Amino acid sequence: MLEAKRTEFYELLVREAGKTLPDAIAEVREAVDFCRYYGVLARAQFAGAARLAGPTGELNELSLHGRGVFACISPWNFPLAIFAGQVVAALAAGNSVVAKPAEPTPLIAARFIRLLHEAGVPPNVLQLVPASGRTFGEVAFAHPALAGVAMTGSTATALTINRALAARSGAIVPLIAETGGLNTMIVDSTALPEQVIDDVVSSAFMSAGQRCSALRLLFLQEDVADTMLEMLAGAMDELIIGDPADLRTDVGPVITPAAAEGLMRHVAKMRDEARIIKACRLDDSHSQGSFVSPHLIELKGAAQLTREEFGPILHVVRYRASDIQDVLASIRSSNYGLTLGVQTRLESFWREIFANTAIGNTYVNRNMIGAVVGVQPFGGTGLSGTGPKAGGPHYLVRFASERTLTVNTTATGGNAALLNQGS
Asked: Are 422 and 62 in contact (CB under 8 A)?
């Protein structure tokens, strides 16, 4: 049904979320993938009780059951795919769901909820609650019926929810959180320049930089830094910034004027503390809408970037080959661990990077965005989330409780019947 209604969702994604058409198409496909993948997992993992080995004369079974009512809280940057993934996972695991969409994008969420109701999900099992985060949290997190929370959003929001759940007087409930990151890419002197530039541009500037996985901090080995930066600035000149409904557009607006103002405050600060290498040009055609010019900013050191700037702003730091351990230490010290890119033609180099970092998704010689459901399960560590990974084989089980049943079959005359029923 989602595939049949895809053009309707394309339009909503462009109009309400400011998605470019390629991004809208990809997001509908991802939502479809979540539905199919979790449907397959549910059949495999929840089909019936598993027999466990035990003493002779004893029947032991392990089964998965829904926990109860899950609160699903989704972000505006993927208002269909992430929203759909959370909701259908909770439903597939046997829960009822109260779904709170992001405040800027309620129409997309409402249309998907209506689709699920049309598909046969009972309205009393799935309810949409468009509300402010504060209002929703005051009611939901203290409610005795709450059995779990799945959220995607900022690290600050996840910490707030975690504290609210810890303060509950009722049952302890799980929190499944996927947050942001200070995502880095490390480029050594052996990397293929053309590959690097393509992957950096797409990772940093597609979706106007409004992806949890987007590249924020680029480490360039000093031997090739000048050449790479010159090529990158030239590639940025080719970016088309404009109406997301226009197929020619590469970079659309950011989500709200307030978001644009916050990003430009960061740029103003960087003018004093760092070096602006490149800023794409905006003109009168961008006066209507919350457009932010893609920026390339060279920092004196990685410590200057202390938080995720959620937009088309890329920071770069040069490093010496002998200082690679300092680079890795700076990545670890941030306590974020969502995505990491490595560009090199040396297997020993990317293996060293992977072994010495704790990142949820590491990508070698490719871009860092667009994780594929069932292929690159998505989620981070530390300040970047709790796991398990969305779109992965362990996700559904987190929405469920495990129950065991043990029967002493020697104490009843129905031994054979019990054993047959268990099998």
From this structure: no
Rounded CA separation 305/300 (Å): 10
Summarize pLDDT for 224-276 with one digit per residue, the tens. Answer: 999 999 999 999 999 999 999 999 999 999 999 999 999 999 999 999 999 99
35 is catalytic: no
The catalytic residue among 35, 212, 280, 309 is 212
DSSP state of 304: G
Decide if 178 is catalytic.
Answer: yes
365 φ/ψ sector (left φ>0, alpha ψ -120 to 50, else beta): left
Catalytically annotated residue among 16, 30, 61, 178: 178
CB atoms within 10 A of CB 144: 10
- What is the secondary structure of 25-81 as a DSSP string? HHHHHHHHHHHHHHHHHHHHHSSSPEE---STTEEEEEEEEE-SEEEEE--SSSTTH
Q: Per-residue pLDDT for 338 more than 60?
A: yes
CA atoms of 201 and 384, how far apart (whole Å): 23
What single-letter DSSP state applies at residue 420?
A: H
Element (H, E) at 105: none
